[in-house]
Amino acid sequence: YRTRYATDSAFHGRQNAIRVTEHRRRVLGVTPEDYARMFVEQDGLCALCGQPPGKWALAVAHNHKTNEVRKLLCQACNRTLGHIEKFNLAPQILAYLTEPKVEMLHA
Predict the structure, then answer these.
(1) Cβ contacts of residue 64 below 8 Å, gap of 6+?
(2) pTM assigned to the model
(3) 45 sits in which H/E element
């Protein structure tokens, strides 16, 4: 199994897909049918940036404390949102984005 997993990319991909599907079902209660419905409802696009998935499937975004399912996000948005939540950065980010810009001195 280990050798095949390491050397056969198609086998590796199938095993990873099975693992992700089982994680969605076991931890989040999201069945393959649920995921497909969410995907169609979002027109196959990330709920935040509106882009289609790249190399990886859209992630099931969820609250890591309650496992409450939100929407499907691309990997970049999902990771970004995770960092914002983990470090409670939302207030600082809002303040940063709304504060006055620095004037540049031109030579």
Answers:
(1) 82, 85
(2) 0.79
(3) none
Nearest of 73, 102, 101 to residue 85 by alpha carbon: 73
pLDDT tens digit sequence for 4-44 = 556 766 655 677 788 888 889 998 999 999 999 999 999 99
Is the separation of the CB atoms in 30 and 60 below 8 Å?
yes
Number of H helices and E strands in the chain, helices first, is 5, 2
Q: Report the C-alpha gap between 82 and 77 in whole angstroms.
A: 8
CA dihedral (75, 76, 79, 83) in degrees, to 10, reads -170
Q: Tell me the per-residue pLDDT of 56-74, one tens digit each, with 9 for 90 and over.
A: 899 999 998 899 999 999 9
Cα→Cα distances 11→17, 25, 94, Å: 10, 21, 44
Q: What gap in Å lies between CA 74 and CA 48, rounded to an integer?
A: 8
75 and 54 Cβ atoms separated by less than 8 Å: yes
